[in-house]
Amino acid sequence: MKLKTKKSLAKRVKVTKNKKVLRWKAGRRHLLSYKSNKRKRFLGKKTTVSKAEQKIIKRALPYVF
């Protein structure tokens, strides 16, 4: 039986060559006027997902890993 990929998650994360999962940081959608430029700059970068969440993502994206 084929496993289905969670498409909503597949659009939100990227898996690198070394099987690390990258995600965007939260907090850069609105209310930006009071946030410093430094904070906004670092919120724009990608970060890796924690090990605990990586197990969940592995199950949701069966054909990526």
Task: Please characterize this protein's 3D structure.
The chain is built from 3 helices and 3 strands; from the N terminus they run αββαβα. It is an alpha+beta fold and 65 residues long. A hairpin with a 5-residue loop joins β1 (13-15) and β2.
Give descriptors for this structure.
65 residues, alpha+beta, Factor Xa Inhibitor, 3-stranded antiparallel beta sheet, 3 helices, 3 strands, 35% helix, elongated
Largest sheet: 3 strands, antiparallel
Q: Quick one: overall form?
A: elongated
Quaternary organization: single chain
- The number of helices is 3
CATH topology: Factor Xa Inhibitor
Mean pLDDT: 96
Cα Rg: 15 Å
Strand content: 15-25%
**Range of helix content:** 25-40%
CATH class: Few Secondary Structures
Counted up, domains total 1
Would you summarize the structure shown here?
This protein has 65 residues and is an alpha+beta fold.
Secondary-structure map:
Blueprint: H1 7-12, E1 13-15, E2 21-24, H2 37-43, E3 46-48, H3 51-60
Antiparallel strand pairs: 1-2, 2-3
